[in-house]
């Protein structure tokens, strides 16, 4: 079997690059899902509390704050995480489309070469 033509090598390189980008996006999305779940769980527990105050860890210190302040901060974190997750989902969709396109081009190029 001879060496692959530059066009096929280029397609294979692009395909590998898109696969790596897709893996990175999927990993980042999973991390955000964990952060969203953690923040939602904390917010749920906070809302169950009958106290007007709660404590937030700031470094090695617990700081006493009004419950509403922490609830507001958690809501904002959740919204920010969800916006970032949605952005990653759009990027993931585009990368999956690009991956499919490159796979088809590579199959075609290899089919032409083999034929």
UniProtKB/TrEMBL annotation:
Role, per record: Molecular chaperone capable of stabilizing a range of proteins. Seems to fulfill an ATP-independent, HSP70-like function in archaeal de novo protein folding.
Pfam families the UniProt entry points to: Prefoldin_2
Species whose genome carries this gene: Geoglobus acetivorans
Family: Belongs to the prefoldin subunit beta family.
Subcellular location: Cytoplasm
Name assigned to this protein: Prefoldin subunit beta
Coiled-coil parts of chain: 8-105
Annotated NCBIfam families: gimC_beta
Matching InterPro entries: PFD_beta-like, PfdB, Prefoldin
Superkingdom, natural source: Archaea
Subunit and interaction comment: Heterohexamer of two alpha and four beta subunits.
Keywords: Chaperone, Coiled coil, Cytoplasm
């Amino acid at each position: 079997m001879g060496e692959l033509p530059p066009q096929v090598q280029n397609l294979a390189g692009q395909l590998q690059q898109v696969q790596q980008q897709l893996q990175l996006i999927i990993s980042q999305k999973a991390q955000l899902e964990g952060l969203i779940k953690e923040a939602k769980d904390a917010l749920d527990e906070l809302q169950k509390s009958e106290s007007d105050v709660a404590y937030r860890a700031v470094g090695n210190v617990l700081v006493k704050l009004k419950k509403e302040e922490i609830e507001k901060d958690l809501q904002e974190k959740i919204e920010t995480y969800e916006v970032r997750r949605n952005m990653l989902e759009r990027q993931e969709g585009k990368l999956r489309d690009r991956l499919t396109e490159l796979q088809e081009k590579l199959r075609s190029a290899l089919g032409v070469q083999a034929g």
